[in-house]
Amino acid sequence: MEWNYNASFQKKHKPINETDNSSFMLLSFLSNTLQAQISGTVKGYVTDTINHSSLAKASVSLLREKDSILVKFTRAKENGYFELNNVKAGKFILLVSYPKYADFVDQFSVDSTKLIKDYGKINLEDKGRLLSEIIIKGNRAAMKIKGDTLEFDPKAFKIEPNAKVEDLIKQFPGIQIDKDGKITAQGETVTKVLVDGEEFFGDDPTLVTKNLRADMVDKVQLFDKKSDQAAFTGIDDGQKTKTLNVKLKEDKKNGHFGKLELGGGTENFYKGQAMFNKFWGKKKLAAYGILGNTGQVGLGWGDKDKYGQNSYQVTDDGGIYFTNNGNDEFDSWDGQFNGEGIPVVKTGGIHFDNKWNNDKESINVNYKIGDIKLSGNRNDINQQNLSSSSIYNTSDKNFEKNMTKNKLDLTYEIKIDTTLTLKLNVDGLFKKSNSSEAEMRKGTDEQGNQLNNLKQTTTNDVDDKVFNINTLLTKKLKKTGRTLSLNLTQSSTNSKSDGYLNSRAEFFTPAVITPDSTKVVDQNKVNNINNIAFKSNLIYTEPLSKSLSLILNYGFNISNGKSDRKSFNQSANGDYNVLDSIFSNNYELDQTINQIGAIFNYKKNKTVFSFGSKFSGVNFKQYDVYRDSSFKRNFINYMPQITYQYNFKQRESLRFSYNGNTDQPTLEQIQPIPNNQNPLNTILGNPNLDPSFRNNLRGSYFSYKVLTNQYFQVSGSYNFTINPIISNVITNDRGESISQFVNLKDKAATSYYLNGNFGKTIKAIDMNAGIGLSASKNVDYNFINTQLNQTKNSTYSFNLNLSKYKEKKYNFSSSFGPTYNVANASINENSNSDGWGFNGNFWTSIQLPFKFEISTDGNYQYNGKTQVIQESFERFIWNASITKKFLKSDNLSLSITGRDLLNQNVGFNRSAFNGNISQSTYTTIQRYFMFTVSWDFSKMGGGEIKQN
């Protein structure tokens, strides 16, 4: 709640101390003087509302409306009169202030038709008298739009004592946080959370949201973070990260705060967490440590986006590089806990940042170390649709995994002078992982006859090293808007792995119970993969007018990759030292990329519009060392882009964008490396593949009304790929497949998503209510036994959100609604997997006497049966806790928590791809009870923080 006051005033139009004749003479003089500039006069008297006495020395300010810059200033004379002369044509704000009186604010314009603005008497209201006679209850603006940034004001939301940033963000319209702390905003995942614009432990958002206190926050900003070079030049380079920036209050930047938490429970579950933060001057120091097996830990789910790469990754500019994931699927584990299995986690880190030399120099350092162990099992069922029949596959898998990771990143920035800035980024990753898996797979036909049987075990040890260094030099030239920037990047990656693959595949003739053929693999796999790359990007901006600018760029990239993969068979004495030449290879890849581009950028008033394109010429050569053969390819990538944004007002904006990209075929599609990881599928290369062209259209609209706390947001995208590269699969009646990639000439692969949210405060019951609608659809193609198959995957959902907060009594929020899923393949009428579902979440806390609090939350999921999946799935995960708080600030607490009280937590997933319908279930954390002690401590600004 916030108390506001507004001064009443009167406007009189009779001129004071001026005659109509003088005004006419002034206008005549201006109109007859060709070199003269249009200017006007603003005048009036400042008086008291009750006795109309003059308020001498009252402050009179004239501000420019569009940016509130002070244009003119004066003070009222002894009789209260003021006059501002030579006011140029334009739109202005008049601000009149006097001690202990409410301010007078008014907007007006000066133009050729109105050169004199006479306010007559401006009666100011005494604040004390105003507040004693009338109370005006107003709403605080919860959010506003600043350019591309959506800014939230924490003072407009309810904050409990010792609440964390996560509890605050949950209340923001259009933002959702799941049970693992993953943040979704405007339909996209937030992958970075900054503190005062700086990296805070790098890429782990949960370390901010789950540990920083909400009462320390001044504002929270949501935006698409651009690359440093794009932020400097003002032109979009396509590198965007959905980001939250938490800005702290100034008085909370001096002192320290932290948290200690220990818990032990049934079924051998435990958790421990420590967090410490210290602020002094421009310095910030933070450290944390986490251990436990509950799954509720601050693991960086953004790491896999940065380091977890697919085989033969192709970048937007056409670059291709080796990774260690292509030949052996068991190399692909990136050490993340996504709910599958039972985790044991030990992780910690330290952060430091500082500014000095009048903020001309700054440093930001983050170091993290972590260890995670996972164990569990997974069960899969799959329907593989053929033109006239289907193959049913079942699989049971057990796994053990372990990963240890050390990660360091450092940023140093120096402002050499007012026009020249140098920024240096260095980061390194050292990761060791090992895994072992055992799988049994079985395939049957529609009558239940066995077609194939696979037993497979894999073990693997991987050692990864990554090092990157980036330098950005920016220079502002003499002419305003003319800039030059140079970005240089050197990267090096090395991955070594050593593992064993042992598999036995048996194939059956229908109605025969013994196999008629067998494939056996017993090999040691040793991989050594290296990549070294250098990238440069030079950007020059030239202002063509006040509103239009041109951005030119040139990039030069070179890289070298080496991939040495060896497969060894077992010799007679039991050693794995017989090289298998078919499944061994040693490739070297050299690339040279030249990129040029031109972008026009138009900014005027409320409109931002940019358009242009980039072109990259790629020349690469792949050399097969074992076979002494080379493969060369040259191609050009075309990347057009258009962006339009219109800001109607501070809390309403509209944005559209288009991006196009040429997608070149990967090396795996053109000339695949032989892979015997899956004996049921053999991949052939196709050197005649043509590139495809991917088009992406995106749009969004957002508005917010302060008085009714009403928001409306809609966003969507549409993608279509021309000449897409699709798979062509030939499968025999025993489930053996041979596949090859081909172009689809006469159809486009398409996809879209649409997301909308509307909400407001229902004042009659003091409750926030909102509705959300979302729809997504993917249409993909592939050939199955020479017949074109179309696979459709669609999801439609509706959800209702309700929340209510009663200070010191209760807090309640819920979200629930139905979903409808479409998953089918055109090749087989029995492939329809359409079905209804329902999802619901709730959370509530009730404050009781003697500082007791009861809280509970739940998640309900239902997936109905379909034509393919004949069983429905249903689970309700219910958690509850009772907490007792101690001390004056309630910062010490004891709690008893029950997780998954109904013991229904089973991992579940359904999917459809290339005519295959799949469902997976897996082990995950189930019911336990835990006793926890938690202590939040702080000393900020020289004393204990008092909770409101």
Which geometry do the CA atoms define? globular
Q: Low-confidence parts lasting 5 or more residues at pLDDT below 50?
A: 1-36, 132-138, 299-331, 942-948
Question: How many E-type strands?
Answer: 51
Straight-line N-to-C gap:
13 Å
Protein name: Outer membrane protein beta-barrel domain-containing protein
Pfam families: OMP_b-brl_3
Question: What would your notes on this structure say?
Answer:
The model is unreliable at 1-36, 132-138, 299-331 and 942-948 (pLDDT under 50). By secondary structure, this protein is mostly beta strands. The strands form seven sheets. It has a 26-stranded antiparallel beta barrel. Among the domains are: 40-133, Immunoglobulin-like; 747-924. It is built from seven helices and 51 strands. Strand 32 and strand 33 (607-624) form a beta hairpin.
Protein topology:
Layout: E1 2-4, H1 20-32, E2 39-48, E3 59-64, E4 70-75, E5 81-88, E6 90-97, E7 104-110, E8 116-124, H2 127-133, E9 136-138, E10 143-146, E11 149-152, H3 165-169, E12 175-177, E13 183-185, E14 188-190, E15 192-195, H4 206-209, E16 217-226, H5 228-233, E17 240-248, E18 255-265, E19 270-280, E20 283-292, H6 303-307, E21 313-314, E22 320-321, E23 342-356, E24 361-385, E25 390-415, E26 420-444, E27 450-476, E28 483-507, E29 517-543, E30 548-570, E31 576-579, E32 585-604, E33 607-624, E34 629-649, E35 652-663, H7 667-670, E36 681-684, E37 692-705, E38 710-722, E39 725-731, E40 737-743, E41 749-762, E42 767-784, E43 787-806, E44 810-825, E45 835-848, E46 852-863, E47 873-886, E48 892-899, E49 907-913, E50 916-922, E51 928-940
Parallel strand pairs: 2-8, 15-17, 36-40, 39-42
Antiparallel strand pairs: 1-9, 2-5, 3-4, 3-6, 6-7, 10-11, 11-16, 12-13, 13-14, 16-17, 18-19, 18-51, 19-20, 20-23, 21-22, 23-24, 24-25, 24-50, 25-26, 26-27, 27-28, 28-29, 29-30, 30-31, 30-32, 32-33, 33-34, 34-35, 35-37, 37-38, 38-41, 39-40, 41-42, 42-43, 43-44, 44-45, 45-46, 46-47, 47-48, 48-51, ...
Domain Outer membrane protein beta-barrel: 475-935
Protein name: Outer membrane protein beta-barrel domain-containing protein
Organism: Flavobacterium nitrogenifigens
